[in-house]
Design brief:
Blueprint lengths: L4 H10 L9 E7 L7 E6 L4 H10 L7 H8 L14 H10 L3 H4 L5 E2 L10 E2 L24 H7 L3 E5 L9 E2 L8 E3 L8 E3 L5 E2 L3 H4 L1
Parallel strand pairs: 5-8
Antiparallel strand pairs: 1-2, 1-5, 3-4, 6-7, 8-9
């Protein structure tokens, strides 16, 4: 079996499933030539006990969709929920394998210390692993990094669909005078990315639309 599987199991054991509503992750990591590929799916909002209940009662068919994935794929018997259990926080935790205390994304919106008072940044577009407050500028020693960086360095192909952090954007501290990039788009770019639109290669869909 592909050696990527234990990594997936580690993520699953640390982070709770966040299923249902609109925000969904489809992240494919593989070599160009090898199979099987790994597909991680996160559907924001469903509690595991409800999913299990609906599978038992037949509301969710056991041989289709989530039922098929649970039977044929890998799932965790126990998960730990990050705190706070918000969409941006949870998905950055999945991507980095670390909690908000290390990856520095602690809410769906929050204040960056380097920002003017009362100005906020979206947790979906915040610097992952921190930034240097003096300046502000990029951190020379980020405290966390998303898994797609290591995968791409290893020659893997990564596809992300509407996944927080994999947006291909330059992150700038809101309303600072010098507008310096505190996290470059190279750290937030995958091989193929879908952002509420058509598939694009190494870019956000807004850049290709």
């Amino acid at each position: 079996m592909n050696r990527q599987i234990p990594i997936f199991q580690l993520w699953s054991n640390r982070i709770t499933y966040r299923l249902v509503t609109v925000s969904a992750l489809l992240c494919i990591a593989s070599t160009v030539w090898a199979t099987p590929k790994i597909i991680v799916i996160s559907l924001d909002g469903a509690t595991p006990r409800f999913v299990d209940k609906y599978l038992v009662t037949g509301a969710l068919p056991p041989n289709q969709g989530i039922g098929l994935l649970k039977h044929a794929g890998v799932h965790a018997r126990q998960n730990l929920t990050v705190s706070p259990s918000l969409t941006a926080v949870s998905h950055i935790a999945i991507a980095t394998g670390s909690t908000a205390a290390r990856n520095d994304v602690m809410a769906n919106t929050f204040h960056l210390v380097a920002s003017p008072f009362l100005r906020k940044i979206s947790g979906f577009a915040a610097p992952i692993g921190g930034y240097q407050i003096t300046g502000p500028t990029q951190s020379s020693h980020p405290t966390a990094e998303p898994i797609w960086l290591a995968l791409r360095k290893a020659g893997k192909k990564v596809v992300c669909a509407t996944f927080p952090g994999a947006d291909g954007l330059d992150v700038i501290v809101p309303e600072t005078a010098n507008q310096v990039v505190v996290q470059p788009n190279s750290e937030r770019t995958v091989d193929y990315h879908v952002n509420s639109g058509p598939l694009s290669r190494g870019k956000t869909t807004s850049e290709t639309a």
